[in-house]
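To: structure subgroup
Subject: Chain for Friday's discussion

All,

I'm putting the inputs and outputs inline so they're searchable in the archive.
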Amino acid sequence: MLDVSEVRGPLQVIGYDWHSQGSPVEGDGRVIDFGERADLTLYLKVTDRIGLSGAVVSVGIPGLFEGGDLSDLFRGASPSIGEVLEWDVSLHLTPAPTREKPLPFFRAQDYHLEFSLSNALGGSVIRQVLLTVTISPIAGATDSSFCISGNQDIRGDRRLSLLEGMDFPYGPPAMNSSGNGDIRSEITDGIFTGSEVPNWESVSWDSDWGPDLRGVDIRFAREVFVETVVAICPTPYLNHRADSVDVAVSLDGESFEKRGKAVALWERTRRGIQAIVVRDVNASTRTVRLTLSHANQAQRIVLSEVYVFGR
């Protein structure tokens, strides 16, 4: 059971069951891979009178919460003090990057999994830390893996500047008017580059509202071994997004072999900035092709950054 002695509010989580993968760690926590799904059952106890109208419950990590109307949990009935109900919730653990807490590329990072209750005006009535989730390194923890695309926000000892150039096989994108540099540098200059607004540090392609393909070829100065590719895709508006990323490789720049695909794990109704991670590429190449696509009802495909990890 959770210690709720310091929790103040009309609704408290008194316990939970963790149904997902992820190794337990000392104390109350879990180690889990970036993007893994967490399935939990929360046990909520009513400790005081609570109004259902407009109240929202959610659970998640900073930048990524799942939830719904409190009235749905009680199925419209008035809650009784002392009542305990079960709430099953699932979410993919894909924290959004911030300048203060970047993505865990090479080092595991801790995040608090929190429960919150908000009122009709959006004010927080209660916020309760449930456990600490440790996200494993996206690019692997070994010293043999580097950021070979040379992105500027990767620390120097893990960054290799092997990039030779970029091409756009489906046509060049447009750069956000608030961005810095040129189209090519925009894709490797880091998620936060002076503006503090990742949505501005991006390029985008018009996609005419239908399913379509856009992409970039990343050419290296020598043959490299690619392990993981990460596309940072902002969704400033619900019709500006990327829903999937395909990765192919080529030694001659002409014939390409598909090596992996990943889909966006966020709901299409959520705005923000997310990482789409293609793991286990594991191929020697001179060129990496990222092909981005989206489902129907999107006007533009947006890309902020591409990270290529390997050696």
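Points worth raising on Friday:
The first strand starts at residue 11 and ends at 18.
The chain has two domains: 11-135, 146-310.

D.
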